[in-house]
Amino acid sequence: MRELQSRLRALPGVEGVTASFPIPLAEPVFPLRWGMGDALSDPSKFQAADWQIVLPGYFETLRTPLIAGRTFTEADNAPERKVVIIDQLLAAKNFPNESAVGKRILTRFRNPELIWVEVIGVVAHQRQTALAEPGREQVYFTDGFRGNGLDVYWAVRVKGDPAQ
């Protein structure tokens, strides 16, 4: 994946290259169960959000506005780094009148057991399944967190006409 990314970046006119799974508007998204501390004692407190696995540089390539905190770096792209980025809908709903950055949420994404992950950034909401519907809140993980190179959709930002 890294070799392909480097080769794509080297093409004339390329400004950014990233990969994700899924990529917005490409296929159905399956919900992720996540919760706050109260979900440990009351499973009905778990909520659903869309999830996406992305490479560092995803938000910059897609020009998704960063609202708070920061986006992923290569240092975050490792299995032991338990960090996520959430969208503004999830942040507003669950952390009203306070910053979501630095807060922790529970997920059951990588393993059958629950894992605490730290929110490092908040980005603008992306429509994942349809342009006409806003869809669910979103949680983003790095490719390294999942640990299996699942990114299968590539996005390339170019200067000028993409056909060239």
The number of distinct helices, counting runs of at least 4 residues, comes to: 4
Number of strands: 9
Major sheet, described briefly?
A: 6 strands, mixed, barrel
> What form results from the Cα inertia axes?
globular
DSSP strand content? 25-35%
Report how far the terminal alpha carbons are from each other.
24 Å
Low-confidence parts:
none
Helix content: 10-25%
- For the residues shown, what is the average pLDDT? 88
What is the alpha-carbon Rg in Å? 16 Å
Taken in chain order, the helices and strands follow as HEEEHEEHEEEHE
**Sheet with most strands: strand arrangement:** 2-3-8-5-7-6
Overall tally of structural domains: 1
Structural class: alpha+beta
Main features:
164 residues; six-stranded mixed β-barrel; single chain; alpha+beta; globular
